[in-house]
Amino acid sequence: MKTSSFWFNIIFILVLVFHFTSLHASGDKRKIYDNKRHKIGIQRGFSFQNGLAVDYIYRVHYFQLQYHYAFFVTKNWSFELVFQPQYNEVQLKNDREDAAFSKAWEVGLNGGLMVRKNILKDRLGFFACVSSGPHYLSQSVPRQAHGFIFSDNFFAGINIKLIKIMHLDTRFGLRHVSNAGIKNPNGGINNLFGSLGLFFVL
Prior knowledge:
Shape: elongated
Order of helices and strands: HEEEEEEEE
Oligomer: single chain
């Protein structure tokens, strides 16, 4: 994933947000989540590389905390800043033919922009997000140096209201990690991922 394409995704989402919010802003009385701006949550997930042309295995088991701040809200749309501190467990093989996995870990913080569309009086929502941030890898595969690195993510998902303030949150996405050429090798590591969690409207 190139840096230019990552920023193109951010700009594209910004354009969509302001287009749709301008259509829905007039005459709104009740806003998404009753205009509450803050949400916190937790996510557990896993990555996989099925369908990706890679000769290594790098599996990630995610544990993420989340904080959302909705700074632009209309009746059915919100535009949110997202922060995701995380600690992730990793299983890796330098080559798919290796007999055993090695164990490693990651720690990092992602920040991003999320667009959310809610329907059915906040009972169901759809969202998309782009995020990036610094990470540290304790170990890596030969194509990518371990240590300080950046994690770029794009994901989309669905949230379902369980009770008044609690929502189920499920998502699917793509992650790319590399270090912007700070240290060689810098071939990057790509993963698809899915996760499930809860968030609470404060």
